[in-house]
Every structure is written in structure tokens, then in C-alpha cells.
Amino acid sequence: MHSPRRLLTITALAVATLLPSGCGPSGTPAPESAAAGSGPAKVRTIGVAFETLQTEYWVAGFEAIKAELQRRNLGMLEAVADSDSSRQLQQVRNFITRKVDGILLVPKDARTCIPAIKAANEAGIPIVLFNRPAADTPGVTSTAVVADNRKLTRETVEFLVGQARKSGRRHQAMVIVGDLADINAIGRKEGFYDAVKGQESVVQVVAEVPSEWNQEKARAGVVNALQAHPEISLIFASSDFLFPPVIAALKSAGRYHKAGEPGHVILGGFDGDATAYQMLVDGYLDATGVQDVYFEAEQSVQALMDQLDKKATPPLILDPGFVIHQGNLAEKKSRMWGANAVRR
Amino acid sequence: MKPVLQHSAVLRLLHQAPLLLFAVVLLGFGALSPAFLTVANGVNILVQTASTGILAVGMTFVLLTAGVDLSVGSILFVSAAVGGKLLLSGWPLAGTLPVMVAIGAALGALNAVFITRFAIMAFVVTLATRYFGRGLGLRITETRAMNLPEGMYQLGAAHWLGVPLPVWVFALVGLLAHGVLTRTAFGRHVYAVGADPEAARKAGLYPERVIFAVFVICGGCAAVAGIVTLSQAPAVSPGLGNNREFMAIAAAVLGGTSLFGGRGAVLPGTVLGALLIQTIENGLNILNVNPYLYPIVTSGVILLAVLLDAARCRVLAEAGRRRIFVES
Lengths: 344, 328
Hints:
By secondary structure, chain A is of the alpha/beta class. Helices cover about 45% and strands about 20% of the residues of chain A.
């Protein structure tokens, strides 16, 4: 009786340990995904380690990187750490053992990635961070390609403030902030306040709703804030993925109207996902700050190639992104990853 | 006689600790903001509590048998992902909702099979199901958010007798669970198995059957919680249900359910615990408190409630202890 039980316990534990590695092989990359192509010239192989693939943005980033590597005829090993920084360190070490030519890393946060970068530095393998920078640490060298969250948010919110000014009245505003442990969320929060600072005659911030990147929390927060401040007429969401709960809350309050219609709540977001694109097309969304995922993927791979060719690369490469709104939708939508996701 | 009386007074007070804490929270926020103590906000709190509350009701059944279910968030996600796919492919809402509940119950049954047939710890089995479910859900959704048809939103916005539908669902689940636990033989078996499985077996009960049933109930509740969640925010995002199990456990424990089994109740216990958590969140929102303070305040209240519960247990144990006096 005890042997099968023990076996099952071990199996269950093994499943629990292995499943979090998420999509794709973590640590033990599939041979078929490695070293695409063959021939006399050695094909360079890049290890791509994502912290998670649990948002549309990360999936879009992953696909953009894969396409960029294919375009340059580079091989790829892939790993997903499912938000576990120690697992990610193991995955990077496995890449080093497999003697990859370069590593592209999406770290969980700015600090827990330092051991992984150190390991790559010691092995003499170039490492580039995608979308999240590492904390400044003496003796640790890396290049990060990141969206300028603060600047792009400031530009987006400045556009919203401009729309508010056109209405000729003072607006009460709500900002939905992301996970306060995420440096990108902090950058967006700061960018929002940069834009509204000194604009008190046009926009008065009355509610700061924490979401922890959770739609239910965001929905409850928006409903509660609308309850306390029914006059709110400008909402900025720190990520477009928070729009479904915002829309539900506005609909419940009878406040979801297209731009230009009476009672319209000025809406702005960040990311440029498929929902935001559809809202722009339908006329409900005023503007969103788009992270140029194609630019980030191209620059990340380019930085790796430069390092392999012994060229110097800056520690930080900023993706300026762009603000997309009703006025420039037709012109800019081809660079909006969410619009491309809708088309697919 | 005096110490006994003192004990009973303290006990009565400690027995009502969750209720008193809830009253203090209500009055505190009410004093700080006139927008808090209103009927509209009361309804808001009830609607927002519904999903976590239903999840916590299911969790209470499991906790009462001294088990734990770490997979409810993932079960919620899988049933929502399948439901979302069906709705987007044109299935009617009336046909989709039962399928979602069936998936929840089936995943609960899967947990139960491993726990009862192979005698593996519930913690290990449900941990595995937690990861399995998340992976399966991500596979089904292809890690893309699914915006659901208008019908799902209308479900959440529907009212009956002036009360929102999610509140009715929460009330129905809560009353049904309370009735089952307090007025049926099965309910008594749940408490008996949780208090002492061996004694329950000697009394002629089948602990495995009881444990099987509570995990199926818990899975079904997770799916119903998923339906309520989607009716509030009609989109299946890849992070849906993540870490919801901990909130459900917190709500049950806040309501006085013991993690060691055999003690606890859905009404007022778990329902009050879930309401308390959501009320704090709501009050902080309305006061526009700095977001950094939310986890500090919420965890502080949870800790206080648990400390009060521990004090109650201590007083109970002390009251039951035999006293030996040495006469000089």
C-alpha cells in the first residue's frame, strides 16, 4: 500500500515543481527550438528568458523577439520562469552551460536579476534586459531596452489634460495605479503626476486607486471611487488591460459614452493592447501610450549583436513609444501591437 | 464562582470578536467619510464581496475537514476560460454557465480522487492542481485577454427586487451552505471528520466520502465565484483568479474557521470575514488612502482578528482545565 502512495506523492510533487515553468521548456530547452538552420557557418544562438507570459504584452514581446531573431537567422533557446526569480537564475545558468552566444532576459524585478547578470558577466556572455532595467550595481554590466514609462505616460496624460481644457470646465480625475512593486507601474504613476502638476485649474486628482494589476481590484476601486466622487470625468488606467473593469464600472454608473457625446468620461491608458485599439476605433478611448514592442525587440537583438562584435552599447536604450489617439490612429496603428493582434 | 463568571463574560465578548471588529471598521470609516455609510455603498460592498465570499464558503467546507484547497483560484480561471471560449463561439449564456460549474466540480473531484483514493496530502494535491489549472487556462486562452459578450455584463448588472443579482447568488450560496452544515447529517459528518477522523470512522462514518464531497463543493463554488467575477468585469485575463485562494482562506479564518478542522461556520463566520476584508478595501478607496497603506491596514486587521480568535481559544482551554488546589 505504501509504495504506490509514495510514488504518487513524489509524482505530485514533481508536477508541482515542474509545471510552474509555464510555456516552453525552462532550463532544458527543446532541441528543435535551438540552432535553427545548419551549414558551415556557425549559427549564433540566443537564450531568451521571460519572467512570465501571463499578459498580452509579454506574449507580443516574445513573438516580436522570435520574429527578430528569425529575421537575422539566429537560433533561439527559450525559457519562462513563471514569476520565480530563482528559477530564472537556474534557466540563465542552463543557457550558460549550453554555451549560448547571448542572453535576452525579461527579469521579474530590478534586483533579483542581479545574480543572473553576474553569472552571464562571469561567463563572458553578453546579456540584454528587455523592458525592465536592473538596479545600479557596482561590477555588474548589462544593457536594458525599456519603454520610458514616465515620459510616455506624461505625454499621454498631457493629451488628456488638453482634451479636458477644451471642454472649458474643471475635471475631477482618477488614476488607477499598477503593482507598487513594479518599477514600470511606479514610472507611470510618476508620469501621471508630472502631467497634472500645475494643472489644478483644469484637472483635480480626487482618487488614486490601487489595482495590483488585478482586474477585480480595479473594478471595485473604480466603483468605490465613483461612489465617493460622482463628478469624476477623467480616468487614467496605468495599463490598457484594466479597461474591461473600467468599462463595466462606467456602464453600471451610466457614464460610458463616446468622445464628443454628452457625459463622456475622458479615458486614457498605457500599453497599446487590442482592447485599447478597439476602444479607439469605437470612439470611447481618448488616448493611450503605446510601448513600441517592435522597436524594443529590434534594439534588444541589435545590442546583443553589437556586444558580440565587441562594440560598446549604452546601459540604457529608451523606447520613446508614442501616444495614439483619434487624430493619428490611421497613421500610427501599424506600430500598435494591439492593432496587429486584432488583425491576427 | 467569580472567575467562572469572568471567564464567561470574556468568552461572550471574544465569541463576538469578528462582529465587533466589523462594527468598529464600519463606524470608523463612517466617521471619516460621509460617502461610506450609505445604502448605495452598502450594496457596493455586498456586490464586491460576492465572488470572494462564494469562494470562501467553498473553502470553509474543506477547512472544516482539516484540509486546504490551494487550487480554487486556478479552478476559477479554467472554468472562466472555458466559459469565455464557449460564449465567444456563440454558445448561449444559459448553456455555458452549467458547463462552467461542472468543470469546477470536476476539478474538485480530481483533487478528491488523489486525496481520498491515494491518501496524498490535500496541500500537495491542490498545489499541483493549482499549477496544472493555471497552465491549462493559459493554454485555453493562449495568454490573451478575452473580452466577453454584452450578455455577461448584463448578468452582473441585473437586479431582482432592487438587489443586484451577484448579491442574490452570494446569499443563496451562503444560506444553502449554512443549511447543509447546520441542519443535515452530512453537515454533522463534516464537523465530525474535521474534529477527529478516526473517531468519526469508529462511529460508522466514511471520512473519505465526506472529504470527496467537500472538495467537489469547493470546486463548484470556485466556478460560481468565477461566474460572478466575470459578470462584474466581463473579461478573462491571463491572471484571473491568481492568488485568490489566500483571500478565501483569510476570509474563512477571519470568520472563526479553524485551520485544524472541526470548528467554524459559514453564517455569520465566513460571510462576515469576507465582508470585513472587502469593507476595509472599500473604505480605503473611499478615503483615497495612499495605495502603499492598503496591505498594511488590511493585514493589520486580519492579524488583530486572528489574535482575538487565539485569545478566545486560550480562554476556552483555560475554562475547561481541571483545577487542583493543595490544601494546607
